Amino acid sequence: MAGSGLIIVDKPADWTSHDVVAKMRRIAGTRRVGHAGTLDPMATGVLVIGVEKATRLLGHLALTEKVYEATIRLGVSTNTDDAEGEVTATAPATGVTPAEVHKGVAALTGEIMQIPPQVSAIKVNGQRAYKRARAGEQVELVARPVTVHGFEVLDIRPGGEVVDVDAVVTCSSGTYIRALARDLGAALGVGGHLTRLRRTRVGPYDVSLAKTVEQLAEECVILPIGEAVAAAFPRRDVTAEEARVVGHGGRLPAAGLGTGPIGVFGPDGELLALVEEHGGTARPIAVFAG
Question: Which residue intervals define the domain Pseudouridine synthase II N-terminal in the entry (predicted)?
Fold first, then answer.
């Protein structure tokens, strides 16, 4: 059985995130496997998998910044806002100028309110939106605040009556790239959807660290839990007495390292816990000692 840590998978197209988890359970030889944020089946790229104790990290890692490479097709709308859905409308995009594309992208950059796609995992009255949408129900989803830190246009490629826009998006957790494609097309009056999506980074974990499922089946490369935490969060080294306290779930005085998760390491370099600082106190949110 594999030890505790993270496996950075380069997810193949047409696999669900659950498919990857199921495969990694067999490869790692344990049921305690989870992921830090789903990728749609169409998407490829970085899927962070936690094994054993590292599954407790996943909810915190899911909140980190993400980077995507995307292709948006202007001139065609679908019911899923991506290429897997059914076409719902078309409009010639030949008149859309590069200046208009850049203006539309600029309006979708920064802190914005975004309505998730109809076919999404958002829960509405206790049921996933995609289940209700696929049952033919029109789901009313509420706009949510998200942050698009960067929306860089790499290329604008006209082709027939459509225009393809290649872009790199850096964004907060909870941002739907499909919704950006939909909203860019809507702003330009021609509709739009996502035809390609590749996640290249989750927090500090870059696609250069990722292995394909086939590579992992040959050699299961695990980033040890201590290294994973040190890469993702501020680090705090503590004394033996402080290590004893936090290892039993006790609180420590704050060290002024911010409000987000902080990795606490003992004198021997072993990861003890994740803590958060509030009001002068560092409170454990996940304990790994023992």
Answer: 25-177
Give per-residue pLDDT as tens, 169-220. 999 999 999 999 999 999 999 999 999 999 999 999 999 999 999 999 999 9
pTM higher than 0.85, yes or no?
yes
Q: Give the Cβ contact number of residue 93 at 10 Å.
A: 25
For CA atoms 192, 193, 198, 201, give the dihedral sign: positive
Dump strand ranges (E) for the chain.
5-11, 33-35, 44-51, 66-74, 76-78, 87-90, 110-114, 123-124, 127-128, 144-159, 162-171, 192-202, 205-206, 223-224, 235-237, 252-253, 262-265, 271-278, 281-287
Q: What pLDDT is recorded for position 130?
A: 54
Spatial distance between the Cα atoms of 223 and 226, rounded to a whole number of angstroms = 8
Both structure tokens of 2: 């594999």
Distances (CA, A) of 128 to 40, 86, 175: 14, 20, 17
Element (H, E) at 130: helix 129-134
Catalytic residue among 10, 40, 164, 183: 40
Strand partners, 123: 128
Query: Would residue 40 show up in a list of annotated catalytic residues for this protein?
Result: yes
Distance (Å, rounded) from C-alpha 72 to C-alpha 91? 15
